[in-house]
Amino acid sequence: MTLISGFGDAVQGRKSPSLWRVLLALLILAPSGAHAQTRNVTVSQSDTSKVVYTGEWTKVNDSRSEGGNHRVAAGAGATATFTFTGVAVYFQAPLFPFPIQSNVSLDGKRGTVLDLQDHDSPERKNASATVASGVIERGVWTNLENVKHTVRVTVPIGNTAAVVDAFM
């Protein structure tokens, strides 16, 4: 009996397929996305080709924000819209030493109100951020279908302001 080496050796009178032919067949038959890799891309609020603003938004310089600044919405009706194609999105913002929230919704669904207050710092109205920008725990959407999605950031009902810094 002859052992198969994978390179066309005979086995009991039959010719075995070449290893390269088997590998080629597997590559051809593999799903097209099988080798695609996902990667995170951070999009700053200052990239107005990707984040569209309506209503009143003010750019605020702050060293603890992504890229050195973030935007603050003043009043109802202000909306920041970020559209992307992908399988996940993360809302990113610094934390502040006073009560402030952002309402973030995905694909037209009911928004999630995100608390952006640094509860470990003494309260100081209108102060700069006390915690560097990072992903806000409740502002994470994963396992999405790899299609176009829309994120909207608005001022929560009953509030007077909202913050947007970056999306990842």
Give structural attributes.
168 residues; mainly beta; Jelly Rolls; 2 domains; five-stranded antiparallel sheet; four-stranded antiparallel sheet; 14 strands; 7% helix; disordered N terminus
Describe this structure in words.
By secondary structure, the protein is mainly beta. It folds into two domains: 1-36, no CATH class; 43-167, Jelly Rolls, CATH 2.60.120. It contains one helix and 14 strands; from the N terminus they run ββαββββββββββββ. The protein has one helix spanning 19-29; strands at 10-11, 14-15, 43-44, 51-54, 57-61, 69-74, 79-86, 89-95, 101-106, 112-115, 131-141, 147-154, 161-164, 166-167. Strands 4-7-12-9-10 form a five-stranded antiparallel sheet, with no helix packed on it. It starts with 9 loop residues before the first strand and ends with a strand. Residues 1-36 form the signal peptide. Keywords: Signal.
- Rg to the nearest angstrom? 25 Å
Helix content: under 10%
Instruction: List the domain count as a whole number.
Output: 2
Major β-sheet, in short? 5 strands, antiparallel
**Mean pLDDT reading:** 83
Strand content: 35-45%
Query: Tell me, what is the CATH class of the largest domain?
Result: Mainly Beta
Provide the spatial order of strands within the biggest beta sheet: 4-7-12-9-10
Gross CATH architecture of the largest domain: Sandwich
Structural class by helix and strand composition = mainly beta
How would you name the oligomeric state of the polypeptide chains in this document?
A: single chain
CATH topology of the largest domain: Jelly Rolls
Number of helical runs?
1
Helix and strand sequence: EEHEEEEEEEEEEEE
Question: What is the CATH homologous superfamily assignment of the largest domain?
Answer: Galactose-binding domain-like
Gross morphology: globular
> Would you count the extended β strands for me?
14
